[in-house]
Amino acid sequence: MGFPPPKLIELGVFQMPGIGKLLALVLMAFCVATLGSLVIAALDRDIKAVEVFGFLTITYGTISAFTYMVATTQSASIKRGGVFLGAIAMWATLVAIAMPPFMLLENAHPIAAFFEASSAAVTLGTTLLPINAISISMTFYRSIVAWLGGLLTLMLAVYVLGRYAVGGTPNRDLRFVLHGASRGTPRLLATFFEVALPYLAVTIACIISLILAGVNPVHAVLGGLNTLSTNGFLGWATTGSIFNNRLGEILLLVFMLIGASSIIWQRTLFSQQLGQTREQLESLKFLLFGAGAVILGVLFSLTAYPLGSRIGDDLFNRIFDIISTLTTTGLTHIPSQGIHVPIIFLVGLALVGGTSYSTAGGIKIFRISAMMRHSTNEIMRLVYPSQLIKGSIDTDSGKFSNSKAIWSAFFSVMIFIVVSMSIFTGLGHGFEQAMALSFGAFSSVSSLVSQNLYLSDGSGVPLMSLLWIGFMGLAGRIELLVLLAALSRNRW
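-> structure tokens emitted (492 positions)
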């Protein structure tokens, strides 16, 4: 028997110590969710939840410590192929370890538990249970898992997508958060703190702002955790708007936009280094796009849903739902009334999503901007075939590779979504339902999923639909090109 090819060796056993170290860190961080939920359960005197979360905290803590010690006894360097495999393994681990509470405390079927766990981890926020049937400890658990999922999303963006420019991700300003990259061995712990501290600081700022605005402290904590992770889970029942507090809801809109903006932009803003960056115009483009989306969305909504007697409240309701969809948070301002904006417009917003290096889903503003610029240049090349167009692929060889990566990401997403729509229609969902589910699951927009999850004939939700939604959410978070890169380093 011959030896395996060098590429398989590189992607295999010699990467395992480094990947094991990453998985140990995921388990260690996840103990925050179980330990926090344990405290909430103890305050609520929920004995069964105390036992479950206590057992999981001890188990996960022990496994993470043992795995970390074993991994550090060997060389833990991870090369490019191993980084992609490690990203997939980290997300799979996060969902797997998040499943037990749903099965033990809510008696969920394993597939339903996978759906609930993946929905929380990828910050989708959709749940099969009515809010009144969820205990306070499980409400907090869903929110903190989503917050950790947002943190993992940011780490993936910095450590994988930006580091290797996957899908054309801009990385010239990555030096503000990625330590040691110039020496070829980025320091994971230092990078983690550069990402986690601004993320935590903005979350705390959101919670404090909501409390000062008069929001219920419990709702403020849950709102802060879910908003900054762009998670669409609403952890309390309401007959009116989300907070029944206009100032609190305006603050929620502001922090939704912050959550969907670049963590690099936030990092440089806090450290007063914003003037040293070169590619932070994406955040400005995102805000301008958001303003345009609000204007167009309100106009489109008026053609299908006339304003009611309370014009100001009705307009704010629509603006809130538009921004919530664009940031891929997916919260509905008045859940009992639904969304009064055309579904096709919301689907387009969900596809665009937020900025790079953010917790938002979608294909990102920088790709939309780059594709429009590239398309304009190509049209100009047809009009002036003998002229060198500034900024075109003819004047810069790097732009060709970047454009190819961006278009590859876009078309891989569109093909994946079309296939998913076919799967959902085959499972019994109507065409409009299948479209909303596909775009909503991929971009992690709760309102698009939750309002189209059940079959139109009222026969419930097929287990295969739950399984596929969970997989789509993971594919959207990991990014399809990372999945392809894990199989072939040269095709991403």
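The radius of gyration is 22 Å.
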